[in-house]
Amino acid sequence: MSAKIFYDSDADLGVLKGKKIVFLGFGNQGSAQAQNLRESGIPNEDILVANQNDSYAETAKEKGFTVEHDFEKAAKVADVLFLLVPDQVQPRVFNEKFAPHLKPDATIVIASGYNVFYKLLNFVPTQDVVMVAPRMIGSSVRSLYEKGKGFPCFVSVEQDGTSNGHSISLALARAIGATKAGAIASSAKEETMMDLFAEQGLWPNIIMLFREAFSILKEAGCSDEALCYEMWMSKEPAEIFERAAEDGFITQLKHHSTVSQYGQLSGALALDGAAAREHFKHILYNQVLNGDFCKKFSAIEADLEKEGPENPLNELYRKSEETELGQAEKRCMNYV
């Protein structure tokens, strides 16, 4: 199934004229997108950064933006609100500080589908809720814009309270520089599904495969140093993924030796993916789409701010660092 892709010619920046655009958060994405908006012709006086009094606020001021520490005041003037604080704090900050004071026809912009898909944010029916989600780190959103290049981005209208959500979402995508390369029609469900599936299904399996391969090769007599550098510290996997992004997963193999090409292609085709498919289906349907992960994560959210072993994330790091791979990597990093 092919998705609709939108370009500069599909977007009218004029729909943003006279609108007050508020950024909740000025981290990597907030900083990049606010600067891109300004350089796309949005007047600096129409951009406001809502941020607590911290280093991010100071950075925003240094870059010439007006900063408002009072979230209620920022909410009242917002015609467009970019939600660019971390997913786990969005419900508390938005629902308590912004939602009660927003204009009834305001546009709320999300860059992650998580809180909208799981219905954790409070909107009124007359508001627009749109997704403009760069598939790129903030520093690259900025650097690619400065080079006159675009970057991949997902766009969608999750709630069309004013009937103008589509045109506003495309205008914002163009203003941050995304439609130069093409903004892909998506949805909060699709973005969340792919994002969480990768985080809970794909990458854990990759980590597990590296961990077990490391142990097997160490048992066979390979040194920690040789294994760490051969498997990942040489940055060869990073180069492979970069080639895959440019040429495709299969075609990039032609940059490898003939022995490597034959080994990888024949080995991949010989593997039975049935067990992996069942595992992946379980992750998708019994953790992500049914909301089970969201419930479990919400239950531990407050603990993530604690110090030491009471923080479940710290405990996961501790256990991972105790593996053979973790211990070897720690030693080898001292040589870098």
TrEMBL record:
Give yes or no: UniProt keyword Hydrolase: no
Q: InterPro entries attached here?
A: 6-PGluconate_DH-like_C_sf (IPR008927), KARI (IPR013023), KARI_C (IPR000506), KARI_N (IPR013116), NAD(P)-bd_dom_sf (IPR036291)
Q: In which pathway does it act?
A: Amino-acid biosynthesis; L-isoleucine biosynthesis; L-isoleucine from 2-oxobutanoate: step 2/4; Amino-acid biosynthesis; L-valine biosynthesis; L-valine from pyruvate: step 2/4
All residue ranges annotated as the KARI N-terminal Rossmann domain in the record: 3-186
Q: Name one Pfam family in it.
A: KARI_N
Q: Which family does it belong to?
A: Belongs to the ketol-acid reductoisomerase family.
**What is the name of this protein?**
Acetohydroxy-acid reductoisomerase
The organism encoding this protein is Marasmius crinis-equi
